[in-house]
């Protein structure tokens, strides 16, 4: 049984139990759910033994990738390729036109999530900047951050701000904190581990956006501009945001969401 399926079974059971909580004493069911999930882990959900590594080429030319001195493929500029590797230590060497671009050893591990395949990104020359964002389905007009208006445009799930938002610092702060939680910018470095994204680089299937559940909206890793990246990174340091800070962050988050390509299934 796959780890994701095990988790879904447990989550589904707990959700049904929560719905019935007001109608009956659900404590015995909760206990049963916990026991069932504990039994599923050793019997059906095996600890993972592999990791996914997305090699993303932000270089101006094609790159040749070698892992443990074995040729893993050539990647064109602006493209990526996913490698499946055993957990443990691996030597990554990247060349472009015969010249070294990257040469480092990394250790791949599942951390404290032994039943979920860990996902890493390697951007050999460190040119690209990345953000993990949660997606939604309503149209949104392009703003100053947007460089490509031909892409499908999206917005977040969050409701429109009230007209008197500027007079309520607590409301501004609450909305600002929610935005920082729904968009995570990774520090600019060539190798890092993904926190929660479900989709990577390739077009996101439009069908996954039909779910209006705020707590289970799909998330995607996307490349963003230096300006958007810096705005989302800097937002974490602002403890008492102003209305201008909020508007700036909203624009950056929406620009990050719009940068995720969508694949129409019509």
Would you write up a description of this structure?
The chain has 266 residues and is of the alpha+beta class. The protein has three domains: 41 residues; 78 residues, Immunoglobulin-like (Sandwich); 134 residues, no CATH class. Helix content is 28%, strand content 27%. It contains five helices and 14 strands. The strands form four sheets. Strands 4-1-7-10 form a four-stranded mixed sheet, with no helix packed on it. A four-stranded antiparallel sheet has the order 3-2-5-6, with no helix packed on it. Helix 1 packs antiparallel against helix 2, helix 3 runs parallel beside helix 5 and helix 4 packs across helix 5. It starts with a helix and ends with a strand. About 12% of the residues have low confidence.
Provide the number of structural domains: 3
Which regions have little confidence, pLDDT < 50, spanning 5+ residues? 20-24, 137-159, 162-166
Query: Count the helices. How many?
Result: 5
- Intertermini distance: 32 Å
* CA radius of gyration: 21 Å
User: How many strand segments?
Assistant: 14
* Net shape: globular
Q: Averaging pLDDT over every residue, what do you get?
A: 77
Briefly summarize what is shown.
The protein is an alpha+beta fold. The protein has five helices and 14 strands.
List the helices and strands and how they pair.
Elements: H1 3-19, H2 27-43, E1 50-56, E2 63-67, E3 70-75, E4 80-86, E5 88-96, E6 99-108, E7 119-122, E8 129-134, H3 169-182, E9 183-185, E10 191-193, E11 199-200, E12 204-205, E13 219-224, H4 226-235, H5 243-258, E14 262-263
Parallel strand pairs: 1-7, 11-13, 12-14
Antiparallel strand pairs: 1-4, 2-3, 2-5, 5-6, 7-10, 8-9, 8-13
């Amino acid at each position: 049984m796959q780890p994701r399926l095990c988790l879904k079974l447990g989550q589904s059971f707990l959700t049904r139990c929560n719905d019935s909580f007001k109608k009956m004493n659900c404590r015995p069911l909760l206990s049963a759910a916990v026991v069932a999930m504990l039994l599923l882990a050793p019997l059906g959900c095996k600890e993972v033994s592999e990791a996914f590594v997305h090699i993303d080429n932000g270089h101006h030319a094609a790159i040749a990738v070698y892992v443990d001195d074995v040729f893993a493929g050539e990647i064109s500029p602006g493209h990526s390729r996913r490698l499946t590797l055993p957990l443990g230590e691996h030597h990554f060497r990247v060349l472009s036109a015969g010249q070294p671009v990257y040469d480092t050893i990394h250790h791949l591990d599942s951390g404290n999530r032994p039943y979920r395949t860990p996902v890493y990104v390697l951007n050999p020359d460190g040119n690209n900047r990345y953000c993990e964002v949660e997606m939604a389905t309503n149209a949104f007009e392009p703003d100053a951050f947007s460089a490509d208006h031909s892409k499908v445009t999206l917005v977040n799930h969050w409701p429109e701000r009230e007209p008197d938002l500027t007079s309520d610092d607590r409301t501004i702060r609450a909305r600002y904190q929610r935005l920082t939680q729904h968009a995570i910018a990774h520090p600019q470095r060539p190798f890092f581990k993904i926190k929660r994204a479900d989709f990577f680089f390739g077009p996101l299937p439009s069908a996954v956006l039909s779910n209006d559940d705020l707590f289970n909206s799909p998330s995607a890793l996307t490349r963003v501009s230096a300006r958007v990246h810096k705005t989302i990174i800097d937002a974490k340091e602002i403890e008492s945001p102003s209305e201008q800070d909020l508007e700036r962050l909203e624009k950056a988050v929406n620009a990050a969401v719009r940068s995720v390509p969508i694949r129409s299934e019509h």
